[in-house]
Amino acid sequence: MGKTILSTSGKIKVLLILFIMSFSFAIADLAQSDNTKEIAFYQPSSENFANPERGLFIQYNPLENSPHPPFKVSDLKAIRENNITLVRSIYLISEFKDVPLSDSFLAKITADLAAAREAGIKVILRFSYNWLHGGDDAAEAIVLAQQEQLRPILKNNYDVIAFMEAGFIGHWGEWHSSTHNLDQNPQARKNILFNLLSILPIERMVAIRYTHHKRDAFNNYTPLQSLAVPGTSQRARVGAHNDCFLASDDDFGTYDSPIPKEIATQKAFLQQDNLFVVQGGELCNYNPPRTNCPTAVAELAQMRWSTLNYYLPKEDLNIIFQDWQKQGCLPEITRRLGYRLRLVESELNQKAIARGKMDLQFTIANDGWASLYNPRTLEIILRHQKTGKEYSLLSSVNPRQWLPNSEQIVKIRTDLPSDMVAGNYQLFLNLPDPHPRLSQRPEFSIRLANLDLWESHTGYNYLQHVIAIPELTPHNRRQSGEQL
Q1: Does the pTM of the predicted model rise above 0.85?
Q2: In 3-state terms, what secondary structure has residue 173?
Q3: How are beta strands 55-60 and 37-41 bridged, if at all?
Q4: In CA terms, which of 16, 232, 386, 440 is 20 to 30 Å from 187?
Q5: How far apart are the C-alpha atoms of 325 and 286, rounded to whole Å?
Q6: Are 448 and 343 contacting, i.e. CB atoms less than 8 angstroms apart?
Q7: What is the DSSP code string of 69-81?
Q8: Residue 359: which of 35, 43, 38 has the closest Cα?
Q9: pLDDT digits over 378-426, tens only?
Q10: Using one digit for the tens of pLDDT, what is the confidence trace for 432-469?
């Protein structure tokens, strides 16, 4: 056979044609690859809306020196309609300083928590032996015995307990002025705190009035550096409540030194520690300019507050909220107390769907001042567009790791349910309460701070993806071991 011999110019032409062809194929492959990825971008919302376990709370304090009346579901629902999901209930136990808690008193607590559950509210609990004008508290042995009486109530109702304030000791249960000197006895303080941690399920935290008491109880002056595995660290279950926020330079003795440098050191401790534990409290004194917006916002952000009391218009200290409204910071405070989660974008791998896989990643930002402090579930919901049938993909991702002022990339890679029928499915992100009593209650699910995502009747957040799922067969799934 003869040979075809190309000239130099002919060789260049052939090479050029081959290069153009290979470049065209590369572009085609890239386009095909891009078509397998569906990207959605999300618009932020500036709306103030209700979310569980964060924000302003309403106080149920003792009346003069008598207990507050039982909760009414209608009252609690009215509170929630004002975008408030928390109440703090301080139970006065002055009649039990020398005797066990009565059955009727224990029944009242159970009934109150049941009313909160029905209304879609959670409760911050505290117990105190005195109110307003002070008075005696109880001996350590009485405190420990009464805590044990509370154990079954806390176990059976922790789903609607946001957290507990340590209480019991001294005036107002605020760990000062104890007539039995419990506040001056480090071992007694430790015993009462540790026993409270033992009777409260590990899913919940205790907030302590003075930070140095936490440091003393654990003999550890280093703030938490990471999120502890549940059940492995009691220190990671102890947060803070400051009940005289902004009242004076040292917040009426909240910090154990009036020296500015020492106060700054304790605030720095809280700033780090509160990345992983709850910070709450209340205002107790009108003290401008310290109670004005610049300082209020700066310190709420610095110490990563999750919840703060609200004074009703009929109460004198509502003047602080009036000032915040006039000065322009009240909307920011109501939005940013605690967590505020916002979707930035998401990316869905369509190619994986044909192989029976879910390959989704999304970027989520926390614009709030704090992290979530209680356990929270993350799941992806797939809903058939025609039949409405839903399938749930539970993720092992821990939303408590979404720290404030940060963005996280979350990857969900898992098998699709084997019994899924073919069809078009809408994709939702759900952050329900993990407790079985509340997991189907949309009032207890987290709403994301985006436009047009929230589905109020389910508590889902729509990811704006519709995916076409084919008939899934063993042949589809045989490549399940391949990289997505």
Answers
A1: yes
A2: helix
A3: unpaired
A4: 232
A5: 15
A6: yes
A7: PPP-HHHHHHHHH
A8: 38
A9: 999 999 999 999 999 999 999 999 999 999 999 999 999 988 999 999 9
A10: 999 999 999 999 999 999 999 999 999 999 999 999 99
